[in-house]
Amino acid sequence: MTYDLWYWDGIPGRGEFVRLALEAAGIAYRDRAREPGGDEALARDMKARDVHPPFAPPYLVTSEGMTIGQTANILLFLGERHGLAPQDPAGRLWVHQIQLTIADLVAEAHDVHHPIANSLYYEDQKKEAARRARHFREERIPKFMGWFERILVHEGLWLAGGDRWTYADLSLFQLIDGLRFAFPRRMATLAGQYPKVMRLHERVAALPELQAYLNSDRRLPYGDGIFRHYPELDAA
């Protein structure tokens, strides 16, 4: 069984949360838009999907012909099918809840540099972005980080407890990694307040099953995606 993962080439974006799960679990997949002519193929493929069409990438196409869109929804599917989440309903929904909360913060991180409209360049909304960035740094990041820390205080090494990671742990790693890129000064200041979250980031980065991927050119660098580093938007 090989999945087709569709996401724009050139940036990690929301597709990276899905890639990490596929890579860590050793699940076969094709990163279709990273193949020659991929972005054009992605645009054509999206238009051709009349049954359950995705709103936007990422989306996953299964060997049975299912089209599954939305990052958290894709991970919910992979978690149940491939054992990347607890098997009991309460555990699966808890991990899904964590993933949805991660998605909330991912969206807020994006909106720091595009607070008015996605269709406008950052340079067209710099004044609003500076105001949004201060609120995000001082209020929103600590609020979310405190919640993740609270979970780990009760659950232990991993977000769902137990002795093995779930897809939510991989996603929290990616979230922290992206925030450290976009807001290095602020995240350095906050790191000591959330030691369990930061240790989880380190544990995921050290997972043997991720080393080949994390050290390859398949792990795309940050740039003009969700997590962007504008020095003027960062502060301790």
Automatic annotation (TrEMBL):
Record keywords: Transferase
Species name: Bordetella genomosp. 9
UniProt xrefs under InterPro entries: Glutathione-S-Trfase_C-like (IPR010987), Glutathione-S-Trfase_C_sf (IPR036282), Glutathione_S-Trfase (IPR040079), Glutathione_S-Trfase_N (IPR004045), GST_C (IPR004046), GST_superfamily (IPR050213), Thioredoxin-like_sf (IPR036249)
GO molecular function term, any single one: glutathione transferase activity
Ranges where the GST N-terminal domain occurs: 1-86
Record keyword Transferase present: yes
Entry-linked CDD domains: GST_C_Sigma_like (cd03192), GST_N_Sigma_like (cd03039)
GO BP annotation list: glutathione metabolic process
Pfam families: GST_C_3
Keyword Transferase (UniProt): yes
GST C-terminal domain mapped to chain residues: 88-233
PROSITE patterns hit by this protein: GST_CTER, GST_NTER
Record's protein name: Glutathione S-transferase
